[in-house]
Amino acid sequence: MITFTAKLTIKEGKEGEFEAMMRDKVVAEVRKEPGNHAYTFFKSKENPRVFMFFEQYTDDDAVKAHRKHLGELGVDLASMLVGAPVLEFYEKIAE
Fold it and tell me: What was the pLDDT predicted at 95?
């Protein structure tokens, strides 16, 4: 299982468009992907341009398929991001 968070800072003026697109369309579609176990969308309480995803996938192939699927859904992160997403990977130690 691959578990990670992805923290994204969105360009000023694009945050509303990004939030609506992800909330209203993309999140539900990603959750249908084979190999996806979790895809939860968060917004910072301190900075309205900062968003975070909690994601879990079966394996590397599922992560690669997810990235491809985002493109198929018309998500052009490069045009909305300030810098690269900050990824943090986690290992489950207890349940």
Answer: 83
Strand (E) or helix (H) holding 34:
none
Question: Is residue 37 in some structural domain?
Answer: yes
Q: Is residue 30 part of a domain?
A: yes
Q: Sign of torsion, CA 88 20 67 55?
A: positive
User: Would you say 10 and 80 are in contact if contact means Cβ atoms under 8 Å apart?
Assistant: yes
* CATH number reported for the structural domain that contains residue 6 in this entry: 3.30.70.100
CB 59 within 8 A of CB 11: no
Dist. CA 18–CA 74, nearest whole Å: 12
Split at pLDDT 50, 70, 90, the class of 6 is: very high
Cα–Cα distance measured from residue 56 to residue 89, given in angstroms and rounded to the nearest whole number: 10
As a whole number, mean pLDDT of residues 73-79 equals 90
Q: Which domain holds residue 46?
A: 2-90
Structural domains in the chain (count): 1
